[in-house]
Amino acid sequence: MRPSLPLRVLPKSSYYDKHYRQSPAMIRARQTYLVRNIVSGVGLGIFVIAVYAFTIKAVSQDEFSDVVVPEKPRSAAAAPHSEPPKSMGTQTVAK
Hints:
Elements: H1 24-60
């Protein structure tokens, strides 16, 4: 399927000039969305701060007074598995 007009005939349209700065047309096109984008950004920021504040408040209300903390074992025999773990790569060689 061939295009109706050759591409080289169509003028190059861009919102940026040769120095990659916004043209007046680009500035006019973006003005309609400026307020809407600012309101959306502020709304999203308020939502994020509210979720963070709610989470911190919910976590700070936790109370652990009903949790029984076990006493420290009195001797090594009372605590099973109290020996330190052996490191993975080293082996002791008996002489």
